[in-house]
Structure formats: structure tokens, C-alpha cells
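Note to self: keep these together.
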Amino acid sequence: EVLSLPSIRGGRRTVPVKRMKRCLGFTFKVGPVPDDGWLRNPTCRDGYDRTVATVAELMVLARSSILVGDLSTSEGRLARFFRSTPARSTSVINGGGRPTDTKATVVMGDDSLSRHVYRPPESPDGLTVHFYVKTSGSRVYLDRARRSADTWTRDVAGPGSSVTFLFDNHQADEVDRMAEEHPWIAVRHVEGTDLQGNYKGHRRPDVDAAHAAQHLKTRAVFDRYRTGPVPDWVCYLDDDMMVNVAVLREDLLELAPSCRPDCLVADGQVWMPNGVNGKGSGMIQPYTVGGYCMSDSLVRRVTDLFASKTDAEIGWVGTDDLHFNRFVMQEALGVTVTNSERWYSEYAYPDVDEHGFHKHTMHQDRANGAVGVQGWMRRKPTWEKDGELMTKFVPSLAVYHMGYDKT
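Structure:
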């Protein structure tokens, strides 16, 4: 709840706090709150009337199925507390849920502008999702794209939802032919991204060109929303990630109350770098691995940011995952990834015990002594090659690396 508070900007009232710079001030207004002079000499009965009216309105806030408010008042945030009840301690201890269980939905816009109002669907099936897949026409990547086009993308069908593959210009004719063979997907060739895959090399010019290509594809995702309608969620995924669409919709619907209005859902990990300022430095960098899904409010904020500032003005250098999270999400927009236990990138694997599957990550292992990505990959448990085990594990996931798909 604290993390969801708006920034102290735009003339919002602040109050000084000792040993702290300043805090956001709130005014809770419920019931009939008259201006001075409404009652020159209020009686006890007048006071009782106001108290009863206040209690009645609080009951409405607590019991209504949906509250529509705006950030110029605090009633929405007050109602969120009313609607949150403690979960059973045993379920929390066993990893079965969050400390609170939100009973109803609070809908908040910004300065009463209806375009910022979130209207929650009644079920996961009602969520509108735009998927974007970052890929290339080079042979290995095109094969991955075909695999996605042949499998999970078929399940995205529905009003307001779509799948778009973002290609470069490698083998453009073959890519376009793939699009014709899979009419439920769209294909876009993003100019200037032919060197997207060179980031793994060590030559500085090649790496810089690869990062520039990654930035162009990321921006291409949000170009559409400068004028077009924004869906409930926008998901941008690497081409080696697979999706259980129905499970993902459930996952997003369940996580939304904990991160609204600006949700960034992913396999969220914490980077512990090596090098001069790396090992032993205690540096922490949360980031998204393999892609992410953004809520509509955050999509609008990123769209506005990209429309008004260049990468240099934002200060975004480097990759479209680690550095995108640092410079764009955290420093420019104040948003940190929300980790989903149902997302498994290639840097995650499940521990298995008598209670089921428990997510484990590369960076946890590195923090405990494993050094370097390649070293970790060699040590990574290989039980995922067990096809029988995967038939139980994979169907429970929202988004997962294709290496787990042994069924």
C-alpha cells in the first residue's frame, strides 16, 4: 500500500516530519462535510446526524463490489483497507497466499480523468491482453517463433486481445510467409534491429548496436498506444518463452490488487553482478527475466515517457531487461517488478519436495557462492529432462522457458 502511493509532485500537500524530508498529507472526507457557515450554531443532534451519515458512507465503501474514485481524495485508499482481510496464517506460512486477501475492487483514476479508470473484468477470461514477441528472422530464432505460432498463440483469441511478433529484416520473405500461414498472429518488421543478437559478443560497437536494436523494439511495443486504445495488459516476451494463456490471465488477475495501479509482472529476480563493483558489493538490482506484463496504467506512463524523451534524456543505456528495469522502470517511473511464482525463465527452476514445487533462481545460487552465469547453468539441476515430471509441472505455469516443455 505504501509503495502504491503517488509521488510528491504537482502541488500535493505535504507535511514535514522530523528527521525526514517530507511526507504526503492526506485528507479523509466522508459524509456531508459542510463549509464554514453551513450551520452557524450546530447542536448535538446535528453532530449525531453527521456521525450517522459518516458511518453509513463508510459501510457503503466497505460493502460495495466496486468503488470508483480518484487520487484527489483518499476514500479509495481507505476502502482498500476495509476490503483487505487477514489471510489464514497457516496458508501464508505454507506459501499459499499473501498476508491479506482483497475482497473487492477499488478503482482509482488520476484527477478524475476517465481514461485512467480501470474497469476490472468479472473473470480472467474478460482480460484483454496484447502479446508482443521479440524475435528475429535468423534461422534459430525463426524456428522459435514458428513454435510459438503453432502452439500457445492459438489460445489468445478473443475480443481485444492479440499477438504480434516483432522481427528484424532477416529472411523477410520467409517471415511474411509464416504470417500468412498463421492468420491469428500479426508480424511487424522493426527497422534498424538487424543487429539485435550481437549483445553476447565482446566487441563494443557490436554490443552498442545490439542494445540500440533492443531499445527500438521495446519502443515499437508502445508506439501503438500513442493514439490507439490500451488493453488491460501488455506482455512483451522473449521468443524462447511459452505461455499457458488461461493460467497467465488468472495470475494477472490475482496479482493486480497487490501492485495496482502500475503493475510490472514477471519472473522477477535480483541481479548480483560480478566484476569491479559486483561480487561482495551488496549491489541489488531487481529486474525482469524473459519478458514481462504491464498493466494499462503503466503502459500509458511508459508510452508518454517514450513519446516525450529520447533514450539519452531518460538515461537508458544497456540492455532491454536489466538496464530497462533500472533506468526506465525504477529511476524514471518509480516501478519495481512484481515477481510471479508462476513464471519460470531459464534462470529459474523448481525445488521439489513432498509439498510440491517451489521456485528457485540463479541469483539465489550465485549469492550462495556460485559465480557466473555459465557456471550456474552447468550446475543447474537437470531433472527438467524428466518428461513425466514436466507433465505435472508445466500446466501449472503462466509463462515458462521452452526448455521445460518436454511434453
